[in-house]
User: Fold TetR family transcriptional regulator from Actinopolyspora erythraea.
Amino acid sequence: MTIRRGSSGNPERTLELLWRTSATPTRHGPPQGLTIEAVVDTATEIADTEGIDAVTMRNVGRKLGTAPMTLYTYVPGKAELLDLMLDAGYARMSRSEPAGSDWRSRLEAVAHENRALLRTHPWMGEISTNRPILGPGALGKYEYELRALEGTGLDDVDMDAALTQLLEFVRSSVRAEIDTSEYLRRSGMDDRQWWERAGSALSSLIDEHEYPLASRVGTAVGTSQGTAYAPEHAYRFGLARLLDGFAALVAEGAGRSGE
Assistant:
């Protein structure tokens, strides 16, 4: 998987586009009604159906019925377009803030919402946001998600670090789920079929007494899950353990403040 860098274009021009502070380009003749929103929505549709590699100015222009050079009067290049696509996706994502819930329930909601977003738009997980998107959609998302940690006693730096760890966990778990699904599709066998063949061959090659732990645990996992890797179990288990770690950090801070 190729990781593409977000916020790698002209920062001033990108911010103008994200916040819509620049004037609409002067157009001479068709296409009438072309807007930045139309360009972004079309690029998003291509990414959703064909993958992020298919998002080119040529393909977007073809979908819109206009020449690629016309698009450059709206968006300078693909780097800026990716930022606009991400920000629009963030602006549209579901945000359900449970009233009166504790911080753990709020963070679970944040994780589930981000997981749903990345499952719907897998390409969003292929763009690095180490340099953040500074648009209204991204900042609104950040503001909303930080509220899940407000009141925990964590300082501002730890709040940001905890949120970052949560979002990176969700991103990696969705990526693993997508990779697993794609591998199964390409192999033409589901995991149960594969294990029936591989397990039979393996049993004739090894002595389970030489690998007692691997044999015991592997058998237990296969019996329980029917596969060596179950994405749903991995996500639920990992999220619970991550939140347990945050709970220890919150308790540690509460202990210090009570001294």
